[in-house]
Amino acid sequence: MLSEVFDFADPELWNSNSFAALRPRLIIHVEAVVAKLESELWRHRDRATKQPFSMSASREQRQRAAEQRRTAEEAAAAEVTAKLDRARTILGLLQQQ
Predict the structure, then answer these.
(1) C-alpha Rg value of the chain to the nearest Å
(2) pTM for the whole thing?
C-alpha cells in the first residue's frame, strides 16, 4: 500500500528522520509479506496438481472438476506471483538504502 504513495528508490525520502526510523520496521514487515506470499504461491501450485475429491462423480465429472481447479489455481498463482514480484522489488529497494 505504501509503495503506491511513496517512491522507495528516492534517496531524498530516507533523509527525513521519520522515514529513516521507519525503514528497519518496514524491512521486517515486507520480509514477512514476502514469506506469506511465497507460502500462498506454493499452496496454489500444490492444489493445482491435486484431484478434487468426489466419490459419486463419474470419470468425466472428476476430470472436468480437476481442470476447473487447475485453471482457478493457476490464475490465483499468477496473481500472487505479481504481488510477490512487487514485494521483492520493494524489499530490495528498502535493503539498498
Answers:
(1) 20
(2) 0.77
Cα gap 80→5, rounded to integer Å: 21
Domain ranges of the chain: 2-96
The H-assigned helical ranges of the chain are 2-5, 17-49, 59-96
Q: Distance (Å, rounded) from C-alpha 60 to C-alpha 72?
A: 18
pLDDT tens column, 38-58:
999 999 999 988 877 777 778
Q: How far apart, in whole angstroms, are the C-alpha atoms of residue 52 and residue 3?
A: 38
Beta-carbon neighbour count of residue 30 at 10 Å?
A: 22
C-alpha cell at position 41: 504461491
Mean pLDDT (the chain, rounded)? 86
**pLDDT value at residue 21:** 83
